[in-house]
Amino acid sequence: MFKVIQRSVGPASLSLLTFKVYASQKKDSPHKTSVKVNELSLYSVPEDQSKYVEEPRTQLEESISHLRQYCEPYTSWCQEMYSQTEPKMQSLVKWGLDSYEYLQNAPPGFFPRLGVIGFAGIIGLLLARGSKIKKLVYPPGFMGVAASLYYPQQAIVFVQVSGEKLYDWSLQGYIVVEDFWKENFQKL
After folding, report:
1. Tens digit of each residue's pLDDT (9 = 90 or more) over 110-122
2. Distance (Å, whole) CA 93 – CA 84
3. Are 125 and 139 in contact (CB under 8 A)?
4. Cα(72)–Cα(69) distance, rounded to whole angstroms?
5. Which distant-in-sequence residues (6+ apart) come within 8 Å of 141 by Cβ?
6. Are 110 and 147 in contact (CB under 8 A)?
7. How far apart are the C-alpha atoms of 64 and 71, rounded to whole Å?
8. Shortest CA distance to 114 belongs to which of 129, 123, 127, 103?
């Protein structure tokens, strides 16, 4: 008893030491032969008496199987649509967060300019009574004029780029009409 207490009182750093313990046979015990691994009951292989028997499917399992087969094309379509729309939605959310952050830290004078541009669009809607073409042309036109007053450099760049695109589109339209004219009307 005293030895056990004495050992437990020893320093804790001794528990970190590693040492080997060698066991030897007692002198008075008879010599036994060693047991092989396959003779141990833990490692014994069961005999081939067991068989796997598949249980018959119940009515519930059959109906769930039919339901899964019926819904499989729709679920695959939904997964495909989700994989296509997920990047677009993530970019839309990122754009919304960036816009929110910009509006929280807006430059001075931004909101009055935004109000004037929006008011110009409303005036365009009021003046465009009657014709659908006027409703399509007047509000963006008035808003563009108001925006160009506050942002002249961006308006110049916008007009240059849109003018080049309009020229390209008109050139493509001219080529299409010319080809159509040559194919259909010059043969007569």
Report:
1. 899 989 999 999 9
2. 15
3. yes
4. 5
5. 124
6. no
7. 10
8. 103
Burial class (CB in 10 A: 0-12, 13-18, 19+), 142: buried
Burial class of 147 by CB neighbour count within 10 A (0 to 12, 13 to 18, 19+): buried
Would you state the structure tokens that stand for residue 21, as one six-digit string?
């313990």
- CA nearest to 117, candidates 148, 160, 161: 148
77-131 pLDDT, tens digit each: 999 999 999 999 999 999 999 999 998 998 888 899 989 999 999 999 999 888 8
Q: What is the CA radius of gyration of the chain?
A: 43
Contact of 145 with 120, CB cutoff 8 Å: yes
CA separation, residue 41 to residues 32, 44, 49, 51, 117 (Å): 18, 5, 18, 22, 88
Dist CA 149 CA 113 (whole Å): 10
